[in-house]
Amino acid sequence: MPEPYLYEISVEIPAAREKIWELISTERGLSKWYAPEVRVTPETIWASWGPGMEGESKITVWEPPHRLRLEWGGSPLEYRVEDGKLHLSNATSNASSAECLPYAWPLFLSALSYAATHEVENVTEFRMTKTPRETVFARLMEHTRSFEPRMAPGHGYASFESADGLLCIFNEQCGSDTGLTLSWLATSGDTAGLRQRWSRIADEVTQ
Question: What is the pTM of this model?
Answer without folding.
Answer: 0.94
